[in-house]
Amino acid sequence: TRGGDHGQLKAGDGCATAAVLAQSILDHSYRYKAAGANAVLLQRGLKRAAEAALEALRQMAQPVEDEEDLT
């Protein structure tokens, strides 16, 4: 349960995970660029990875119609 939720949520919304992943991607991008990587190719790779991750999430998604579906 998170602090301001007063017990309503039992799992996080993924915000912290997204922040950690974004920081890691940024750190690695800087390293690759400093090592001489092509920035355009790096951007294309990141875009393709994001699209693949989004598609995987879409395939795992389950519809929610009411509160009962959440438990």
SSE topology sketch:
Blueprint: H1 15-34, H2 39-60
Characterise the protein shown here.
This protein has 71 residues and is mostly helical. Helices cover 59% and strands 0% of the residues. The chain is built from two helices and no strands. The protein has helices at 15-34, 39-60. It is elongated and about 50 Å long. The mean pLDDT is 86.
Quaternary structure classification: single chain
Strand content: under 5%
How much helical structure, as a percent, in the residues? 55-70%
As residue ranges, the low-confidence spans are none
The helix/strand class is mainly alpha
Characterize the biggest β-sheet.
none
**What is the terminal-to-terminal distance?**
15 Å
Quick overview:
The chain has 71 residues and is mainly α. The protein has helices at residues 15-34, 39-60. The chain is built from 2 helices and no strands.
